[in-house]
User: What shape does this take?
Amino acid sequence: MTINRNKWLHQEIRDWESEGLVTAEQSELLVARYPLERGWSQYLFPVLGSILVGVGIILFFAANWQEMPVWSKLALILGALVISQHLGYRFRFASNQPWLGSGLLVLAGLIFGSAIFLIAQIYNINAYFPNGILFWGMGVLLMAAVTSEKPLLILGNLLLLVWVITDWSNSGQIIPWVAIILVFAATFPLAYRTRSAMAIFLSISLLTIVVAGSFSPDLICLTGLAGLALIGSAFFLRGQDNKEEYAGLYSLCGILLVMAVLYVLSFRGFYDIDQPGLAPYGLLVAALLIGCMLLARTLQNKEVRPQILAVGLLNAILFILVALSSSFLDVGLVMALVINIILFVVIIATIWQGSQGQNRVQVNLGLVFFYLLVLSRYFDFAFLYMERSLFFIIGGVLLIGLGIMLNRQQHKIVESWGGKYE
Amino acid sequence: MNKRVFYGAVLLQVVFLAGMIMFNYSVIWWGKEINLEIVPIDPHSLFSGEYVALSYKISELELDKVELITPSDTTDLNEYLRPNSKVYVQLRENGECWEATRVSKNRDDMGEGLFISGRALYYDSVIYDEFGYPVSEPKAHLRVTYGIESFYTEEREAMKYQNLGADRVRVRVAVDQFGRAKVIGLKVLPTAAVEE
Assistant: This one.
């Protein structure tokens, strides 16, 4: 159970006690069994303070204080790094002021970054700063791995996100394998170890950006995307298991991955493949195997049978489409159309399931993809057939209209839940 | 929390930073100092203050003036010199500056002379201006980056170098025996020297 649920449970236990369902002793025992974990509030100010100090240090050195000799600058920054790490360790693990230690460890993470950029500045290393951010993120993740500190892990994840985005915008391409290795070898395991939902979400966001940024019309990429949809499906199905501790997180991450893949594949240009290969047969066999495995599970697990069938069908269609894409090059429009229809169905199903389960995040996720899908198709097709000024006017009205509609729908769904939604 | 593991990780961070320092300093310590001609501009880096973005004359290799050495079976130069492939450029002293004489992907082709290593940015047969229009007759050329395209300055100083103009600014670069290069500094020529 998560922190908020334990808080809710405490309230419930008190109600049971007042209604005579449990005795005072039993109530105390139950409350002790589900303790409130420490919240973020006591860490918030030290961490925010550390961020401010860290940014100050970065800006201080960024001003390139030439009067200061190189070696004293280096000694100062390395000294600041070691001292803040040392004090962070002392306060976090060897004193009764862990909140201060957490803040100092974050500060050390920021100083490590400023050290990288300072050295780059001193030695005139090429100003391609995304690489610096990558090394910075890796250094922070190393300390997160050693200390299991959530703020450090979140900082490391944020830095990797910034790295991917800046690298993509600067070079015009994404190096997916570095990000994928980092996510699966470092951020996912660490997020699991520290039980950080925020870190999981940031990791999934990173993966989603990498997927979206890496797409290109080739068979390997298509196959990889189909594989990612399969991983997302597995996440989703795991989240449907009520016994799963992180059911909600698994479901949302799975839905996000599947919808992101479908969204990328929904573009017509994606199917302009000029290198047919032999993969179709392998993909068809894989799709059949997945189908059989899911069918076998369906027979065993009756509770989630509809979800398993839906996921199986979706993946089978996806794999067959990928397989066909390299054999029949002129059916791209049909494929894009099929994917668009599938994505639309998945969005509706997501919103429906979210509203049934009173899951606000899932409803919002579905609405966001609905918004994206409508706008993307508008930009794809309308631009070709419409006079330009009209295109922008209608686009603007559409944007505003969609925004109002989505807000209303979201409010309606949430209001219909009454006071039941926590 | 294991104390040794924690301080081991901190040591790794320090070693990484020290490695960055040593790697770069070694070129300046053991390299040969040369002057290169440039065209400065002034972008701004959020993380590192101001710097001068340097574009060198040896960054744009005109292949009718610079010898390109390729394997005998090379048919497609676009493929052979594809972006990001490593290249070596032989340098020769010409007056106070150094110029490119030969380019190859094979270090052995550099002989005994000074050379600098870089990465091919693109190979093309037409040179384009900033608006994408061809500025010359078709002429094979290779754009190369050497990792020395930035020079950090004090605040507001980058613009000063830009205003001086490329003719009056030289870059002092250290180049070591492996072809690695580091910017040592900028040299401003007196006006008279330029007029000559």
